[in-house]
Design a protein that fits this description.
Structural class: mainly beta
Distance between the termini: 23 Å
CATH topology: OB fold (Dihydrolipoamide Acetyltransferase, E2P)
Shape: elongated
CATH class: Mainly Beta
Largest sheet: 5 strands, mixed, barrel
Radius of gyration: 14 Å
Oligomer: single chain
Strand content: 35-45%
Number of helices: 1
Order of helices and strands: EEEEHEEE
CATH architecture: Beta Barrel
Number of domains: 1
Number of strands: 7
Helix content: under 10%
Length: about 100
């Protein structure tokens, strides 16, 4: 799992039937110590009701996505599985949600 920031929504009007009803978000990993983005932006399925600007926990183990969504047929590469309220790096706490 990694921390990422939700930077946008993804709207797909045409997709595989198995993915209808799933919310898609655009996320980018970041360095928790500096806040600097790390790597490319990616599309993640959302099972935590995240919104743009949220810091989230992204599960990078595709197999766990099936359990998170209780869907044994769909294949998930990235899944937002939690919204972060705060985190601590080197004794410094960053509060996201009051």
């Amino acid at each position: 799992m990694r921390l990422a920031k939700v930077v946008g929504n993804v709207v797909s009007t045409v997709k595989d039937d198995g993915y209808y009803g799933y919310k898609l978000m655009l996320v980018e990993y970041f360095d928790p110590a500096t806040g600097a983005p790390q790597g490319p932006r990616m599309i993640a399925f959302d099972c935590a009701d995240a919104g743009v600007g949220d810091i989230v926990i992204v599960n990078t183990d595709g197999g766990a996505g099936n359990m998170l969504f209780d869907d044994e047929y769909a294949i998930f590469d990235l899944v937002i599985c939690g919204v972060v309220d705060n985190y601590t790096v080197d004794g410094e706490t960053t509060v996201i949600h009051g």
